[in-house]
Each structure stands twice: as C-alpha cells, then as structure tokens.
C-alpha cells in the first residue's frame, strides 16, 4: 500500500539580493554567509526526514540550498536529486535585478492604486500582478499569467505524481517565495498574496489522487531544531 505523498517545499536561503532589497526573479545571486548558516541549520533539522527524492529549481540559489540540506542529511548522498526549470521564480523582465522599490513603485501605479499599501489592501489577483509586470517590462521578457500558471502547476504536480506512482513518501523541493505563494493560491483561492515566506521556511503539501492539500505554511521549526542540535554538539 502506498504511503501518502508529501512535498516539503522550501524557500531558498537568503541571498545577496534578498539582503540588499533587489528584485530577484530569473536573475540570481548566491546565499550570504548568514543565509548558508540558516540552511545548514535547516538541513540538520531535516536530517532524519525520510526523503525519497529531492528537487530544486535550476536557479543557482535554489541548487545551493538543496546541496547544503542534502550535505547535512544522514542519507543525503543517496537521495536522488534533480532540477526543474518549471519551479523557478517569476520573471520580472527589465525590473529583474532592480531595487524592490522600483517594482513595487511602478506596479501599483499601473493598476491605478496610490501605492503598494493601497494595492495590497485591495488584494489584487496574481493575474493583475502578472499583467502589470508585463506592462512595466521594457525588455518583453516577463511571462504571461497563463504561462506562469501552467509551468508552476505542472512542475509541482509532476513531481507529486511521480512520487505517488512510485510508492509515495516525502519529497524535498527547493523553490522561491512568490512561486510558492502562487502555488498555494492555486490550491486555496482564499489565501492572500505575498504570504511573506521566510528564507529556509518549509511549506508542506500532501498529494493524493490528483489533489493537493495544504498541511502547513512557512514553518521555521526545522531551522530552530537544527540550531538547537548544532549548539548541543
């Protein structure tokens, strides 16, 4: 009998761009020393979790995060690991790599809001956000909403379906803040945008018979557990 299929979806560790407040979609920077330390703690906190497989997006920060976690895992060297470009962060086009204030300054104006606070109070949709990014993108690189939806959903669902067909169990998946938040909204339409997922947080989804169920969101207890283990050694 198959075990339940559970995705442990992890937001990558804190990067250089995260630290200085730059928009990081398809652009990429490595984890900071502090970011690496937190992910080492996370790896220790997850070291006894029975992962059947591990995945990350193909962005460097996600791959670096996955490698650190697997390095700390007691069976990390034998857990099959691969990358999937579909679970990347959103692409912000010409706004990618700029300061966050540029993105969140122009998007509300395009959507006819006074500022970021006004926009978030009115709870815009992810489609509104995607359309506004396309309107602001002078390079024509940003993805249309339907393309983002198709790639993100198919990426995570294919990972879950593959594990379900192979006996179920736990899967480690390293992805990105907006992508994870967007995925959650596709499962539960009542969830607000930008849940504010912490770097290194774990969001658990259970997949059964073609349906995702949200088990937990933005869990940092594994980091705390790993930090305690590190201090006790």
Automatic annotation (TrEMBL):
The keyword DNA repair does not apply. Substrate binds at residues 11-18, 61. The active site is at 12 (tele-phosphohistidine intermediate), 89 (proton donor/acceptor). One of its GO terms (molecular function) is fructose-2,6-bisphosphate 2-phosphatase activity. The record marks 176 as: Transition state stabilizer. One of its GO terms (biological process) is regulation of pentose-phosphate shunt. Gene3D superfamilies: Phosphoglycerate mutase-like. GO terms for cellular component: cytosol. This is Phosphoglycerate mutase.
């Amino acid at each position: 009998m198959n075990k339940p299929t559970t995705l442990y979806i992890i937001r990558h560790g804190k990067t250089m761009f995260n630290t200085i407040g730059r928009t990081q979609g398809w652009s990429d920077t490595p984890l900071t020393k502090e970011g690496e330390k937190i992910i080492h703690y996370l790896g220790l906190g997850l070291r006894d979790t029975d992962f059947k497989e591990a995945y990350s997006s193909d962005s460097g920060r996600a791959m670096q995060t996955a490698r650190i976690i697997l390095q700390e895992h007691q069976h990390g060297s034998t857990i099959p690991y691969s990358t999937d470009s579909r679970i990347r962060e959103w692409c912000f086009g010409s706004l990618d790599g700029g300061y966050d204030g540029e993105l969140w300054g122009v998007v509300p104006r395009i959507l006819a809001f006074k500022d970021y606070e006004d926009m978030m109070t009115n709870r815009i949709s992810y489609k509104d956000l995607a359309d506004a990014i396309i309107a602001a993108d002078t390079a024509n690189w940003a993805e249309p909403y339907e393309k983002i939806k198709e790639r993100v959903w198919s990426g995570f669902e294919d990972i879950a379906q593959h594990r379900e067909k192979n006996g179920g169990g736990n899967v480690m998946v390293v992805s990105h803040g907006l992508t994870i938040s967007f995925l959650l909204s596709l499962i539960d339409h009542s969830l607000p945008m930008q849940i504010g997922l912490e770097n290194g947080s774990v969001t658990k989804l259970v997949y059964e018979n073609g349906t995702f169920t949200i088990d937990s969101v933005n869990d940092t207890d594994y980091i705390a557990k790993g930090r305690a283990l590190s201090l006790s050694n």
